[in-house]
Amino acid sequence: MSDVAPPLLEVNDLRVEFRSGREIVRAVNGATFSVRRGETAAVLGESGSGKSVTAAAIMRLLASPPAHITGGSIRFNGADVLGAPMPEWRKRCGLDIGMVFQDALASLNPVFPVGWQVAEPFRAHGILDARAALERAEALLGRVGIPEPHERARDYPHQFSGGMRQRVMIAMAIALDPKLLIADEPTTALDVTVQAQIMDLLLDLQRERHMAMVLITHDLGVVAEVADHVAVMYGGRVVESGPARDVLSRPAHPYTLALLESVPRADIDQQQLNPIVGSPPDMATMPTGCSFHPRCRRATAECRASLPPRIEMRPGHHAECFRAHEVFDGR
Amino acid sequence: MTDTVNGTDTAVITHSPRSIAAQAEMVTVRVGLPWWRLLARDRLALCSAVWLVFLLVCMAFGPELLGKAAVDINLRARNLPPGSTEQGWVMFLGTDALGRSMLARLVVASRNTLAVAFTAVMVAMVVGALLGLIAGYVGRGVGNLIMRLSDVVQSFPSLLLAVVVLYMLEPRVANLIIVLAVTRIPSYLRVARAEVLEIRERGFVDAARSMGGSRAHILWRHVLPIVAPTLLTILTVDFAIVMLSESGLSFLGIGIQPPEITWGLMVAQGRNYLSQAWWLAFLPGLAIMFTTLSANLLSNWLRLITDPVQRWRLEAPKS
């Protein structure tokens, strides 16, 4: 975790838009974050903030048209991702980067046994023959906590519960021992007790295999528990980023602050929650200036007129707000 | 919240409850009967399978065993009704206007009929599925070109197209098969494309791509297995349509040429004698009906047994 190590994944000012007919939806308008080997970076944001699109862009899963990457860069291990020829990139997918999706039932093919599917990365890359691949798949299923993996490998996705399906998904993603695991809301579709188990499993695997992890989530509690770094997204931009401990204990962006204040707390007697008023911006008609200004208590004419600069609060802790210092100092 | 944590302690605490909960999560009933026992339990599917196997035997050995009886003209035994045994067991199903055994002719005709219909629908399905997969998964330009070609084929009445083509070409069996196949391709193509357009957006396709699957790999291993049952169902319906088109073409004299026989041709020839000898058209018609019905029933059974989500319906004990 030394700061001198170069980042494994670097996303710099990424911009993605979806064009359909005349309408242009700018889903990501400048996402910047990075993750080092062995670390966990959380991308935090509410629905529609562009976090899943960012994840899909890293894997180059976005169909074009309608999606267009209009700016920015993604570098993996120092090499350009977006410029690499597609067939070459696909060959490295799975080997370099694994991905866990939100909805495990949709992400598993309903007509094949799970063992077959976990074995698929080996076959798709031509690493192992079918029998050896299946043996490895069974071992992986055992590793992610599926009881009786040998028997269960022959079952189909619909015969598994939600938590077990997510375990299968994870087994598939880590099959080729990737250096980076992207987990796109891996626990959203699960109930709370299972969520904790899945997060524990991901952390165990990360430590065991020394993987980097990008965790896409909207769960502040998860971020607080597992993330080394956090990037808070709003309206397609990373509005605040930095070491998780710093950002969560002393936010410098009004949005992050509002998020933290809206979490129910058990330690004080609260009559009411403090929700953030309003709703996230429509990506097709983004407000001018700072996209958070319509919901921000501190908004001024300046916020409505122009995009705020990226201010470094402490080393590695950045916020995009004209009044970041005010928020940071708790004024 | 602020002074939590890197996650280490929570991981240790929840470690043992996890495995217990993991076992509690597992709820499945596995029966796993072999396919032939499931077939034996489904009476309709079993009858269909028996009939189709019987036809296969007829196709394989019929022309060699009964080929002579099928062409032997016996003018003293013209238009014998079914059930007559005085001329021997070969005449059991009656005779046609030239006194030829209906039974022998039906058996011998099965080879031509089924070979033409089966080959035509198989060619149509393979070509249609391939083009449909490409049209649905590869870029818009190629897809549009394929779809417009399919429009062209569909905009002609298929029988007219067949008549024109067979009139210009020699009415040989191979040409007949090609013409029948071409006119059936669009239905497979459209269905395959429509399904691919839906399946390509599903999560497991993205998952396979994120795992490093190439286009061909995804189409072959992930998309095709899901499209296939639908295509097979169309195939069995098409099987009947093609048999009837073939008989129509044979009736017009541009399909199978006598002395070769098919069931369709037999229906066409028997039509003249409907008032005197109904069995001439009725029996081959019955054979066509049984065959298409069997194909439909068996394909329905096959679709169920190959669908992991539906298979339990066959495995569940009968109440």
Would you mind describing this structure in some detail?
The complex is a heterodimer of chains A (331) and B (319). Chain A is an alpha/beta fold and 331 residues long. Chain A folds into two domains: 9-96 and 179-328, P-loop containing nucleotide triphosphate hydrolases (Rossmann fold); 104-177. Helix content of chain A is 33%, strand content 24%. Chain A contains 14 helices and twelve strands. Chain A has an eight-stranded mixed sheet, sandwiched between helices. A four-stranded antiparallel sheet of chain A has the order 2-1-4-5, covered by helices on one side. In chain A, strand 4 (67-76) and strand 5 (79-80) form a beta hairpin. In chain A, helix 6 (130-143) crosses helix 8. The relative contact order of chain A is 0.14. The model of chain A has no long low-confidence stretch (mean pLDDT 84). By secondary structure, chain B is mostly helical. Chain B has one domain (39-315): MetI-like fold (Orthogonal Bundle), CATH 1.10.3720. Chain B is built from 13 helices and no strands. Chain B has helices spanning 8-13, 15-25, 35-41, 43-71, 102-137, 140-155, 158-168, 173-199, 203-210, 215-251, 263-270, 279-306, 312-315. In chain B, helix 4 runs antiparallel to helix 12 and helix 9 (203-210) packs across helix 10 (215-251). Chain B is flat and about 75 Å long. Chains A and B meet through helix 2, strand 6, helix 5, helix 8 and helix 9 of A and helix 2, helix 9 and helix 10 of B.
